[in-house]
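SAMPLE LOG
Freezer: B-3
Tube label: C17
Construct: single chain, 779 aa
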Amino acid sequence: MRSGAPTTRHRRFVAACVAVFVGAVSMHASAAPTWSLVPLPAIMTPAGNGTVDIGDGTGIDVRGNDAAMATVVENFMQRVARVRGLTLRKPAREGAPVAITFDVRPNAAVTGDEGYAIDIGEHGIVVTARTARGAFYGSVTVWQLLTQPGWTRGAVAHVPYGKIEDHPRFAWRALLLDSSRHYQSAEEIKRLIDGMSLDKLNVLVWHITDDQGWRLPVPKYPELSTVGGCREAVGNDAEVSGARSTPYCKVYTADEIRGIVRYAAERYIEIVPEIDLPGHSQAAIAAYPWLGVTGKRPPVWTDWGVSPWLLAPNAKTLRFVDDVMDEVMRLFPSRYVSIGGDEADKQQWNASPEANAQMKALKLASMDELQGWFMQQVATYLVAHGRTPVGWDDEVAAGVALPREQVVMSWHGDHDERVAVAALRQGHDVVMTPQESLYFDHRQSGHPDEWAGPPPEVTLRQSYDTPLVPPGTTAEDATHIIGVQGGLWAEQMLTFAHIQHAAFPRIAALAELGWSPAASHDWNGFLVRLPAEMARYRALGIDVADSAFAPTFAVSRASGGGFRVVLANQTDSDGMRYTTDGTEPVATSATYARPLTLPAGTTVRVATFAPDGKVLAAARSVRLEESTVLTRDGAALDTCSGEPPSRLQGARPAHGPSPVYAVEIGNACWVWPKADVQRATHVGVTAEKLPWRYGDEARGAVVRGTRGEDSVIEVHANACDGPRLAMLPLGHAAAPGKQVRVEASLAAPIAADVHGVCVFATGDPREGQWALGKIAFSK
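STRUCTURE (predicted):
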């Protein structure tokens, strides 16, 4: 997939930034930094004595006032009132002291237009900047100073004396939002922009067209909206459209787009539109079949993956693209326009006499070079109109030169970022967005309650520790690494709640990568500062994921009929607190320090707390009984191939949340190693048949049994070709959209030499992908 770009005047920020004192603290330490700020500023100098007190009615003064600063201050005041419960006044009431001052001067002694300084002392809090943009970032830091750990809404804020000098490491600090696969409303996008701005991100790459939907209105081509903006409501899409018979139709209006652009600009976020070319274009070809090379009209795609429907590489198509770009440039004032260029499956071009004739006429050696020619025409048009093209690194990976002016978004993070290195050596500006650690649609954990998402797992720490300067990069080449970007690809994210869960708090890790000096990078210090940021997210109504702090349970039998419980989480934090009497844990409950040995019948509830008592992870629980050891959630099983599973969302039941399953797409097979199920006499399974919509994954599908026969779940001892323990009929007619439970008696109790279990579904996954919810043995 794909990703973002910067402003030239800030390109040289890549080099050295001043290191900052964070302190060698960890989640286990008792001392904390003087200020919990995210992203970490370049220089912080606490004074050690004195505080500025900010209470209700505190006055604000602005020097160098203009319309832009009026918006900055109003935004700041609203944020303080909403979260901190304090009403600030501008101008201050006559005779009232001024405690916060914004001093904006072109010659201010700060670094760059985005830089700022904060001086906290007897004179109050003074924010100095060259521009309103820098003052905005300063206002965000002041807001964080007013919401330090332990703050109470409505109470006076005590801000310790000291100084902060700050500016960003990179000019391009971005999120990509995919609104083609699943649509977000204009108001939801504005809420995301709010969250981005409070972590000092400044670019939103808006992926607004793809195979699954064309969301951009183009008056000259109305069927892009009426046809390309609609697809059949397959699978979970019916939950959004309202019914399987109701198409999934979503298109933004021009007024909505202008409103989003304007809203973002007030928060110093640039909206960079992405119109993916020549691949990811099936929705456009569905609207206007002459845009393709087959002459046929495909449906708007309902699958995920890589579609073979590419735009025809000819003059007529390029005129269409020019018309679309004219509308894009009319709606989006951004200097940058992303034109994609990724995942162009050329099977239709290879089979097309017209495309082959075009390749020969241009004296090109390959279809990759033909794509390069096509993209050069689009880039040239944008450059002629004062815009800078942005695109993905796929052509670089294929060994074909991109347009010289193009900013490259590098998503191939494997092999020490070899593709990014190649783009840098070609002289391109590069934005680092490796899918391995910065694609936030990927699942965050293997917890049973984790939300849907593809593999591999992208934990908070993996995001935070993303390397941004590849090995072997020269100092000169490094100056062309202009930014960093996270991706929110929406194949499996139906709702804005899921978008929030995927983005937060990993967005804080992204912000620190993009803003803070490289020398200050410290996971333990970040963990100490993160709880305050999570509290701010929640105060703003952001449904932040707690996956990194969520407890996991490892339960085994103990002597005397009891059970041994080992707790853990991704951060190894010491804030896990538990109860065994059925009550919810609170900040004063028992602290987990070592494995627990507890009697049968006990319910263990565990939550994770920050040092100030705020919840970091909601309570999870486990009931200690024989069935606990004999039962496994599908998420706790391994795939038979050893490949990491996807987390796939099942159909929404009449009551409660939708189930989420751990599945290797195309291979309905699971392994439970070291299963302690000896002497079990029965087995039960919950499963659901998911509609197949996985595009190019079809080539690797594993078919078991005979196609067309009724599906069954088979349970085998020790290995998939080991003795069969049970067959549980699922039924050929089992329709997608409903979880089923099947049970069977075993022919004999499971023998003592059985130390593992293999479970698989027969049938062809392309006719319906079986997903395993739970397997439970009983005696």
